Amino acid sequence: MRGIVSYLLGSYPDINSLKRGLLILSCSDELGRSVMQRLNEWSPHTQWHLIKREEPPIEGFEGRTDYTFHARTLGEQWSFVRRLREHRYDVTVVVWGNEDGYQMLKSLPFVVGAKSILVFNENIDSFYCVGKNYRTLWQHWRWRRTTRSSRSDSGRLAERLVQLVCAPLGLLYVVVRTAYLETRRMIRYQ
Amino acid sequence: MKTVSIILLNWNGKELLTESLPALRQALSGMKGVREVIVADNGSTDGSPDLVRTSFPEFHLLEFGTNLGFGEGNNRAALSALGELLLFLNNDMIVDREFLPPLLHPFSRSGDVFAVASQVFFSDAARRREETGKTTAWWDRGIVRFAHQPLTPDEEQAESIPIFWAGGGAAVFDRSKFLALGGFRTIYSPAYVEDADLSYRALKRGWKVLLAPKSRVIHKHRATSSRMMSPDQLESLIARNRLLFVWSNLTDRHMMMEHLLTLPLRCLWSREPRGASWWRRGISRALPMWGKARRLAMTESAERLISDRDLLVRGVWRKRQRRDPNRLSILFVCPYLPKLGIHAGAARMYEVIKGVSRYHDVSVLTFIEREEEREAARELQEFCRNVRLVVRKGWHPERNFFLLKPQHRLREFAHPEMKRILQEEVSSGKYDVVQYEYLEMAYLKRYAGTTDAVNIFTHHEVQHRSLRQEMQVVRNGTLDALQRRIQWMKMLNFELAVARSFDTIITMTDADRRALIEYNPKLHVVVHETGVHVPLDTKELPPEEPRSIVFLGYFKHLPNEDAVLYFVGEVFPHILKNFPDAKFTVVGAEPGHTIRALHDGRRIIVTGRVEDVRPFLARGSVFVAPIRLGAGIRGKILEAWAVRRPVVSTTLGCSGIQARNGENILIADQPLQFAAEVCRLFEDSALRRQLGEYGYETALQHYAWPLQVQKHLQFYEEAVGRRR
Question: Could B479 and A74 be called an inter-chain contact, meaning their C-beta atoms sit closer than 8 Å?
Answer without folding.
Answer: yes
